[in-house]
């Protein structure tokens, strides 16, 4: 495989219904790079004082990763999970065939974090939903591993494709997996990554074929994985492959059936699904 050219993915500001009084910076999916490994969605918010209020809503075909740098968030879901997540801890929800959840910040101090989605591969995307909380992730110096293996540390988090995510406070130089593609998010400030400056909030897509990642001073989130060879159809909170799957999931959710149960302990109305566009949705290439 020919090494890919590094490419800076500038964040775009998106309004997010559930986050008040601030901006969410979205870098994945990006029109030129839709996935990094199976990572298919990356929102970065904060560190301003703000409130996250996300009432019950559904997901299919993905895992959600909730990761905080500052603040606290409560997660509730249809399985009955109730889990507060704090900085340095991982909440990992597997939507599989379908789940509903809600997330709300606790208190009114600074809130700073990321919300990531992992696309489940065809072999796993219809699996039963699940939820995991990991409060004791492997750490060494400035490296903490959320998912997969990095710098010789292995996360216990359960994922279903070759994947990595690590929070790193540089400077540090780490050997990496040449068969993976990587991207690096500059969390607090500009950071130099393999000699290139990544602006604050930017995601530097590094492609594959690297054997080392050299990170300058500053805090980053490293994402990586084997390039996904499946084309995704992402619509609203659903990751699927075909238009008809999206329609079926939307109808099941709007109909209030068993596929998407109530969020236990949360009686707020569900967030309604948007109206489907008047065209047939199609899966898209990842590049
Ligand atoms: Mn969600």
- Tally the beta strands: 25
Q: Using only CA atoms, what is the Rg?
A: 18 Å
- Broad shape: globular
Mean pLDDT: 95
Low-confidence stretches: none
Instruction: Note the beta-strand portion.
Output: over 45%
Lateral arrangement of strands in the main beta sheet:
1-22-19-23-18-15-14
The biggest sheet amounts to:
7 strands, antiparallel
Order of helices and strands: EEEEEEEEEEEEEEEEEEEEEEEEEH
What share of residues is helical? under 10%
> What's the N-to-C terminus distance?
15 Å
Brief account:
With 287 residues, the chain is mainly beta. The protein has one helix spanning 243-254; strands spanning 7-9, 12-14, 19-20, 24-28, 39-45, 51-59, 62-70, 73-77, 82-85, 90-94, 99-105, 112-119, 130-134, 139-140, 143-147, 149-150, 153-154, 163-175, 181-186, 191-193, 196-198, 203-208, 212-225, 233-235, 238-240. The chain binds manganese (II) ion.
């Amino acid at each position: 495989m020919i090494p890919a050219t590094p490419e800076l993915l500038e964040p775009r500001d998106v309004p997010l219904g559930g986050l008040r009084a601030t901006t969410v910076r979205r870098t994945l999916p990006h029109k030129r790079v839709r996935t990094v490994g199976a990572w298919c969605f990356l929102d970065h918010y904060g560190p301003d004082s703000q409130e996250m209020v996300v009432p019950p809503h559904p997901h299919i075909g993905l895992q959600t990763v909730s990761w905080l740098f500052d603040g606290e968030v409560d997660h509730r879901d249809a399985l009955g999970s109730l889990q507060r997540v704090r900085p340095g801890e991982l909440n990992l929800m597997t939507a599989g065939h379908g789940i509903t959840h809600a997330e709300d910040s606790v208190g009114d101090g600074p809130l700073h974090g990321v919300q990531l989605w992992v696309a489940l591969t065809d072999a796993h995307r219809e699996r039963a939903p699940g939820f995991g909380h990991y409060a004791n992730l492997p750490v060494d110096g400035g490296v903490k591993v959320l998912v997969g293996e990095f710098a010789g540390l292995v996360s216990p988090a359960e994922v279903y494709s070759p994947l990595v995510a690590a929070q790193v406070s540089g400077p540090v130089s780490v050997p990496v997996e040449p068969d993976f593609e990587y991207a690096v998010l500059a969390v607090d400030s500009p950071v130099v990554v393999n000699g290139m400056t990544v602006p604050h909030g930017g995601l530097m897509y590094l492609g594959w074929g690297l054997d080392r990642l050299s990170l300058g001073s500053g805090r980053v989130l490293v994402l990586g994985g084997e390039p996904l060879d499946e084309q995704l159809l992402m619509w609203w909170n659903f990751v699927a492959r075909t238009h008809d799957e999206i329609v079926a999931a939307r109808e099941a959710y709007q109909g209030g059936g068993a596929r998407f149960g109530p969020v236990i302990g949360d009686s707020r109305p569900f967030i309604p699904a948007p109206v489907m566009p008047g065209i047939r949705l199609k899966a898209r290439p990842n590049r």
